[in-house]
Each structure stands twice: as C-alpha cells, then as structure tokens.
Design brief:
The chain is 85% helix and 0% strand. The protein is mostly helical and 218 residues long. Helix 2 runs antiparallel to helix 4 and helix 5 (113-138) runs parallel beside helix 7. The relative contact order is 0.15.
Length: 218
C-alpha cells in the first residue's frame, strides 16, 4: 500500500469514526436525560450531531478523490465503497436522533413513568448498545472480533425491536379511559425513532462486515 494512500485511508476512517462517536455520545446523553427529563442534557445530546450533513459530504468527496487517484482494489476498494454507504446511514441515524430528542423532550414530563422505566429506557439502552458495538467495529481489523461485535449489534437491535413491540402491547392492553391518545401517539412516534437508530446501527455494522469479509452488500 502506498504511504500517501495509507494516510488517506486512515484519514477517511478517522472521519467516519468521529461521526459515529458523536452519534453514540448523543444517544448516551439521551439515555441519561430520559429518567429526569433533563432539558439541559437533551440539548447537549443535540450538540454531538451538529452539521452531520456537511461533514459526510466532505468525507464522500474525499473518498471519491481517493478512488480516482489511487484506484484501490480488493479489500481497500470494499472499505471505501462501504464508507460511501455508511455516511448516508450516519446522516439518517443523526436525523432520527434529532427527531427523537425533539419529540421525547416535549412529552417526557407527562407520559407514564412506568412505561418509561420498564420499556423506553431499556429500549434506548439497547440502541446505545448497538451503536457502541458498531463503533468498535470501525477500526477493528481482527476478523473474529469484528464478527463478534456484529453479533452484539444484531442482538441489541433485536432487543430494541422487541421492546418497542412490548410498549405497543402494554398500551393497547390498558382500558380506554386510562389512555391519553394524543400523548401516547406522540410517545410511540418518538420511540420509533430510537428503534430506527438501532436499525441504522445494524445497517452500518453490516457494511463494516462486508468491508472486512467481502461477500454481498445487503
């Protein structure tokens, strides 16, 4: 591998990792904010994902220039192709995170605290688990460890899905007189964003697995 190309690849990898770190930190901060409905912490979470669109555009341009200048093959080509797709997933995950912060922060003081503690917080914790394992995959070159991390993402994403389904079931099982439908719909819409963030983490993890092992992009 040419020294200049190696430097470019490391630079791109670090840029992708920094965006993923910001996304992970934002969702960890959401988790901390949920219990006490902390406006300050919700606001801090938003700061970690500012200007993601412009940052991913810079990364994409850097990738395209690197492809044109060095014409990488095999594994290196897979890595760059994966990064091109990963930046799009990071934009979508960041958008979902902003929507989650906006929606949940408006209703957290009025929604059922039992649902928050039993379902919503564990659901966000599962989303953070998925993001954290995905983040570890980015700079990990050990195939066995990458596969293990990928399995952790799959398990966490599945847990997030299951908890969302449990929230819906719990709400529908209540008597009609106990339900504030407007607030409930807003809550479900917000929590759906958390589930989608976990989905995006799995999509990124799948691309990283492709970058390391090859095969097909799903």
């Amino acid at each position: 591998m040419l020294p200049q190309y190696k430097e470019k690849l490391e630079e791109i990898t670090q840029s992708v990792k920094e965006l993923a770190e910001g996304l992970c930190k934002a969702n960890k901060m959401i988790l901390e904010a949920m219990d006490e409905c902390s406006t300050k912490e919700f606001s801090t979470a938003r700061e970690y994902i500012r200007n993601v669109g412009s940052k991913t555009s810079e990364i994409d341009n850097n990738i395209v220039k690197t492809l044109a200048l060095y014409s990488p093959e095999a594994k290196d080509l897979r890595v760059l192709v994966a990064y091109l797709k990963i930046t799009n997933e990071l934009v979508r995950a960041s958008s979902n995170t902003r929507s989650y912060i906006k929606g949940f922060s408006k209703i957290c003081e009025v929604i059922d605290k039992q649902i928050v503690s039993e379902y919503a917080i564990p659901m966000q914790r599962a989303t953070v688990e998925a993001l954290s394992a995905m983040l570890e995959m980015i700079s990990n070159e050990d195939i066995d460890e990458v596969q293990e991390l990928y399995s952790r993402v799959v398990v966490a994403e599945s847990k997030s899905d299951d908890l969302y389904d449990m929230i819906e079931t719990s709400i529908l099982s209540k008597e009609d007189s106990q339900i504030d439908y407007i607030t409930t719909n807003k809550m479900l819409s917000s929590l759906r964003k958390s589930e989608k963030i976990a989905d995006r983490a799995l999509s990124i993890a799948s691309l990283l697995l492709y970058a390391r092992l090859g095969g097909e992009i799903h």
